[in-house]
Each structure stands twice: as C-alpha cells, then as structure tokens.
Fold this sequence. Notes:
The complex is a heterodimer.
Chain A: E1 4-7, E2 10-13, E3 19-25, E4 31-37, E5 43-51, E6 54-57, E7 64-66, E8 76-78, E9 87-94, E10 100-102, E11 106-110
Parallel strand pairs in A: 2-11
Antiparallel strand pairs in A: 1-3, 3-8, 4-5, 4-9, 5-6, 7-8, 9-10, 9-11
Chain B: E1 4-7, E2 10-14, E3 19-25, E4 32-38, E5 44-51, E6 56-59, E7 62-67, E8 72-77, E9 86-93, E10 97-99, E11 103-108
Parallel strand pairs in B: 2-11
Antiparallel strand pairs in B: 1-3, 3-8, 4-5, 4-9, 6-7, 7-8, 9-10, 9-11
Amino acid sequence: EADIYQTPRYLVIGTGKKITLECSQTMGHDKMYWYQQDPGMELHLIHYSYGVNSTEKGDLSSESTVSRIRTEHFPLTLESARPSHTSQYLCASIGQNTEAFFGQGTRLTVV
Amino acid sequence: KQEVTQIPAALSVPEGENLVLNCSFTDSAIYNLQWFRQDPGKGLTSLLLIQSSQREQTSGRLNASLDKSSGRSTLYIAASQPGDSATYLCAVRGNQFYFGTGTSLTVIP
C-alpha cells in the first residue's frame, strides 16, 4: 500500500490566485517528483527533488515553484494561477532503486 | 535523452483473451523498469517492477519481461477481464524517471 498523499483532490480557483498543492509521503524516500498530466495525455515532469534542500526543474516548470524542507513533504506552489494551469498534478516518490509510488493526484481547474 | 514508446496506443479485446503490451526505450543504461495502471482521473498504481538485472516479474495474471540490451519490455495479461480496462504505462528509471505514452486497454464483456 502506497503511503503518499496529495491534497486537495479537487480544486477550482480563480485566475491570479496563489495556490499550494500538498504532497506527503511516510516512506522516508529521498526522491520526489511532480508531474502534470492533461486528460488522456502523457506525463510531463515539472519539478523533482533528491533530498532535503535539493530541488530541480523538469521539462515543464509551468511557472511553479517547489520546496523540500522536510524529507516527507514536497509542496508545489503556483504564484498566479492561469487557465492554462488547468490539469491534473501527480506527485511521486522513489526509494533507492525501489518502486515508485504515486499519489491520487490533484485535479486543478482555473476559471 | 531517454525516449520511451508504447505500442499499441489503444487496444480493444473480448473478455478472456490473453494480450501483450509493448514498451521500448532508447537508452539501455537503466536502473529498473516499472509498469503502472491508471484509471481515468486517478493516479498511477504500480503493477510490476523489474530491476535491470532481472529478466521478468510475475504477479497474478500479469507477467512482465525485460530485455535491456534490445531496449524492450512486454507486459503479458492472461485471461483478461473487464476490470482490466485502463491505461497501462511503462516507465524506465535512469538518471530520471521517463514515461511511455501509454496503452489504453478496453476489455469487452
């Protein structure tokens, strides 16, 4: 059973608002990832982290930022939401050479 | 950059059939390969993980093989059921984690 949690599951927000998507895992994994996925489309890597105080941009930074102050917590922040940010956001964690586990995702709609 | 391709993009089969999903990747320097299932609007559920030193893994009706030298993996599903309908993704782990484009499977009752 995967112990990785994302909140909220669904969010509708107005253009220009600042939002933070939460991701937490209790497995002690060092590596964590954020992906963006439109319906029926492939996953795009937004940000990743190899441990505390380590963050890197992926192929699609989507004008968002992340932080990794604690091993178990990897929040994603959109400073100013736009309709183009409407998508599903998936968080994942990986232990050393072990399975990747995904959260259930946050479905974001920006109106 | 690693490229991961899955064929076919979509597949529709009658219930009870055995089927094979294919995954190919361009860089054989990988740590492992993982198969996932994704239901509409949901996250990814891990099905099977194959380490780079392994040739195959089995879980219930699922069997995944890995041929690292040729850059290929297959996911075999035996006696398919309507509940198997979902999108199946393969992902290879090298320096980063690279996903295929997925195979959308529909099992018709």
